[in-house]
Amino acid sequence: MVFSSVTFLVYFLPALLLVYFAVRRDLRNPVLLVFSLIFYGWGGPEYLALLLASVAVNYVCGLAAGLSKRAWVRRGAVVLACVSGLGLLGYFKYFGFAVSQLNALGLHLPVPEIVLPIGISFYTFQGLSYVIDVYRGSSPAQKNPLDVALYVALFPQLVAGPIVRYSTVASDIRGRSETAAKFASGAVRFCFGLGKKMLLANALGEAADAAFGHAPETLGALQALLGIVAYTGQIYFDFSAYSDMAIGLGRIFGFEFPENFNYPYVSKSVTEFWRRWHISLSTWFRDYVYIPLGGSRRGRVRNFLNLAAVWLLTGLWHGANWTFVLWGAWFLLLLAGERYVWGRALERLPSALRHIYAMAAVMVGWIIFRAPSVTAAGRYIAALFGANRVGAGEGVYTLLEYMPQLILGSVAALPLKDLLRGAVERRTSGGLRAFLLELAPAGLALCVLALSYMKLATGSFNPFIYFQF
């Protein structure tokens, strides 16, 4: 089940709201857990047992890591949680890829057809963060298994993040407050997220598919440029839309999830971009891989090796394909270069040039990320520079067809909301300020909801990009 579906909007969410707010407060966690399991099991009931097994392992390991007085038991609990969680993730995500690579070396092994359980990368990382934090002493071991189950399986962020630390929501699980103000704020955030998905991401995805669906040798330079511009917008609006909806839904039920995006396309360096993009994943790798390996404290060579480990894992986390490994290597090169080679020179450039550099580097990364193979990525980049000598006719047609979405997407990627809010707070007061800050966004959100539902009712199913990870 996805947020941008009639099933969720018309049946699941209204039923949950009705039951949740009708029962006593002490029954709301069980209600939320049951509905979360229904939400997850809707699209793949065969993998519900896998999710529950993950919850059970992390619960038991958390107890051992937090309550045992024996150091070897505590360490063993962490090792067991990591081996079981990462082992299952590795099997479902990488075993088939590994077999195919062995066959490429001359073996003739049957390649298993393994369906990736939706959300396994996200809930695996959440469960591991809980056990590791308990072991480190930064979070207490939770004795109530239902609380651990609700943390791991909570439906708003279950299948595509943001990756939420247990310490962030522990107090909300035990005793949160649901208020009319939180409900309204969450509903507005959800509606705008739905609009990002239905009105921007899906349309830009069509333009991107038109370019990436070409045979590489028939792709013109303008069509290639429009394709990567469209995909740059699609992946941002698609993924940030899901995060917006998850944060909004969490707020409706009294949870405060961390922000996952902070206008990444205003960045003036690749380093800044990764401070603004998929923040929960970046901080997860920083806190559980990079810093434990030594971070930047042990010299340049060791720091580069630590960065290499992080970006190899980051690339592989996104999928079992050499394109993701190359994508990780591309950003490793850029981040290491900014840190040790051209970072100071970059800071002396005009702001506009720094922004152009950052966006060009990120868009090359998105080509590698989107392409089906390393060879296809190389040919796509070559097409950008006119290698195919194909006319601009199809590119002009695509530009005219999707120009409204391209313009609106370019504007929506800027922090205009923050600028407008600041201007309103500085220059207005009283009833006018309340209207502009509260009633106007709510009214606009209702309009966005109506347009999104119309698009949903007349369009085809289009799942979120990060469901495949």
For the largest beta-sheet, the strand count, sense and barrel status come to: none
Number of helices: 19
Principal-axis shape equals globular
Number of domains: 2
Overall pLDDT confidence: 91
Structure description:
- The chain is mostly helical.
- 74% of the residues lie in helices and 0% in strands.
- The chain is built from 19 helices and no strands.
- The longest helix has 34 residues, at 71-104.
- The two termini are 16 Å apart.
- The mean pLDDT is 91.
Q: What keywords describe this structure?
A:
74% helix; 19 helices; globular; 469 residues
Strand and helix map with partners:
Layout (H helix, E strand, L loop, with lengths): L5 H17 L5 H16 L4 H20 L3 H34 L15 H17 L8 H9 L12 H10 L4 H33 L8 H32 L17 H7 L2 H15 L5 H20 L3 H19 L2 H5 L3 H20 L3 H11 L8 H20 L3 H12 L2 H29 L11
Helix pairs in contact: 1-2, 2-6, 3-4, 3-5, 3-6, 4-5, 8-9, 8-17, 8-19, 9-15, 9-16, 9-17, 11-12, 12-13, 13-15, 15-16
Short description:
This protein has 469 residues and is mainly alpha-helical. The protein contains 19 helices and no strands.
